[in-house]
Design goal:
This protein has 186 residues and is mainly alpha-helical. Helices cover 57% and strands 2% of the residues. The chain has a two-stranded antiparallel sheet. A hairpin with a 3-residue loop joins strand 1 and strand 2 (65-66). The longest helix is centred in the C-terminal third of the chain and has 29 residues, at 156-184.
Length: 186
């Protein structure tokens, strides 16, 4: 499923890249995942496109979420967050979009095991790397995230396919065993 991204949002992603060094595809992928490209309640009510907690330049929303005066301010706050040392220390040596995104997660952005894969799927499904103006152009192979950090629980497509194959094989063996038993006692 491809999502239509307007030029204003692409320009915000370019601003984040220019000002803070975050690849455009990562910014856009996270914005799509975190806010449904601005369709979530928090995006509509608080201009918060990245699920950022705390207080924004317009205060708070529902006592937890940062609220911003504009969508631009949300993108700027996101970029400013990712420019902190806890993230840059993990992303500075990234050679691919997948490695960059894994560094963001390793820095503490989102601890969910599937987060990197989910964002990379969004990047790939929507060809978001076309917006990259940097060395990250054309490098968001999902399997790259496997090598970005061996301590994570990210398996990539190869691991998923291997797991599916194992389950199918076990299911076939179980069906054959049941058919054998039914035939033996008939």
């Amino acid at each position: 499923m491809s999502i239509k991204i307007n030029s204003e949002i692409v320009n915000y992603a370019h601003m984040v890249k220019e000002k803070y060094g975050v690849p455009e595809s990562v910014t856009l992928g996270q914005a799509i995942l975190e806010s449904g490209l601005g369709k979530s309640n928090i995006a509509n009510q608080a201009n918060n496109w990245f699920g950022m907690k705390g207080s924004g330049n317009a205060g708070q929303y529902n006592g937890t979420w940062a609220k911003y005066n504009s969508v631009y301010d949300s993108f700027d706050a996101y970029g400013k967050l990712l420019s902190k040392e806890r993230y840059t220390s993990k992303t500075k040596n990234a050679k691919t979009t997948a490695e960059y995104l894994q560094g963001v997660v390793d820095g503490g952005y989102c601890p969910d095991d599937g987060y990197v894969i989910n964002v990379l799927n969004i990047i790939n499904d929507n060809n978001l790397e076309q917006y990259n103006t940097s060395e990250y152009k054309g490098t968001s192979d999902i399997t790259d995230s496997e090598t970005a950090n061996n301590d994570t629980n990210v398996t990539g497509i190869k691991g998923i396919l291997s797991s599916i194959t194992s389950w199918v094989l076990m299911l076939v063996i179980l069906i054959l065993a049941i058919l054998f038993l039914v035939g033996a006692f008939s």
